[in-house]
Amino acid sequence: MHLHASPFDLQGRAAFISGASSGIGLHTARMLAEAGAAVALAARRTDRLEAVAAELRSAGHRACAVALDVTDATAIAPAWRAAEAALDQPIDILVNNAGVIHVARFVEQSPEAISRVFDTNLKGAYLMAQEAARHMVARGRGSIINIASSSGLRAGGQMSSYGASKAGLIHLTQIMALELAGKGVRVNAIAPGNIETDMHAEFAGRGIEEGILRRIPMRRFGKPSDLDGAMLLLASDAGRYMAGAVIPVDGGQVLSWM
Ligand code: NAI
Fold first, then answer.
1. CB 96 within 8 A of CB 146
2. Contacts for 87 with CB less than 8 Å, ≥ 6 apart
3. Confidence of residue 204 (pLDDT cuts 50, 70, 90)
4. Residue pLDDT, tens place only, 105-155
5. How far away, in angstroms, is 4 Cα from ligand 1 center?
6. pLDDT for position 2
7. Which atom of ligand 1 is nearest to the CA of 203?
8. At a CB cut-off of 8 Å and minimum separation 6, what does 41 contact?
9. pLDDT digits (tens, 9 = 90+) for 7-57
10. pTM above 0.90?
């Protein structure tokens, strides 16, 4: 116990990060571990996750890897239990991060693509948050951080399934916050703009980077580490009076219309 502990300190806490094998999830798992939390890294394939968890443990952190496909409703509760058993403590923080994108014109979005995007980004996040909320409500404490998108706040061409799933996640965040705030569980969302990851390459790697950059007031794409401040704020006691907030972290992009 520090005499002058920072409100951002996560010592003694445990976090579950979905979609932790790459991009924002992988970076955030490392960052939360460095901030003092025990971390459970969850994704469909565990080979890479096991290596990251081992690397974190050898650096003195507490970490484990769990296999989880968020589109498999039956896999979520066992994954949560496995994470708590491996870390040997209850989980206080969910980073609801697993997500996929499908870039295509509205009329060309296939039923399979629409299902994949909705089942992962909206239903998967919904079921994950339900599982987390059940445990957190029982303990009267917890923070759920939904990773939404600026695409859920503004219309973006060729992103109808993705944007609709993220707009849904933002609405879900607000209703969850409403129902759970009185039970000690805070639910908030981060709406990242263009963050350089595999997903971003899929979206922007079509020769449209310059056009996107012109609409970002800071004139640069973000890095996963640009989300650290918002992530730590929502995860820790520093954000203790926040419920239902949707924080854009996007270099000002949602403000810009020309
Ligand atoms: P990414 O593609 O590197 O990471 C997505 C992660 O989710 C991967 O680890 C992937 O394996 C995992 N995942 C996908 N489907 C899954 C499933 N069914 N079960 C479990 N895990 C699954 O992309 P990035 O950028 O790191 O994305 C992370 C989150 O951030 C996503 O929710 C995305 O929508 C959101 N986001 C990303 C932005 C960007 O510009 N990169 C902007 C706004 C939001």
1. yes
2. 14, 38, 40, 62, 64
3. confident
4. 999 999 999 999 999 999 999 999 999 999 999 999 999 999 999 999 999
5. 36
6. 57
7. 40
8. 17, 20, 21, 25, 26, 29, 49, 52, 53, 63, 64, 65, 66
9. 999 999 999 999 999 999 999 999 999 999 999 999 999 999 999 999 999
10. yes
Q: Which run of H or of E encompasses 143? A: strand 142-147
Distance of alpha carbon 247 from alpha carbon 234, whole angstroms? 10
Ligand 1 pocket, CB under 6 A = 18-19, 21-25, 43-44, 68-71, 97-100, 120, 124, 147, 149, 192, 194-195, 197-200
Active site residue 162: yes
The fraction of the chain above a pLDDT of 90, given in percent, is 93
Start-to-end Cα distance in the chain: 50
User: From atom 2 of ligand 1, which residue's Cα is the shortest distance away?
Assistant: 199
- Ligand 1 atom with minimal separation from the 70 CA: 19
Report the distance separating Cα 239 and Cα 109, nearest Å.
Answer: 38
H runs (alpha helix) in the chain: 23-34, 47-58, 73-87, 111-117, 125-139, 160-180, 198-204, 209-214, 228-235
Neighbours of 182 (CB within 10 A): 9
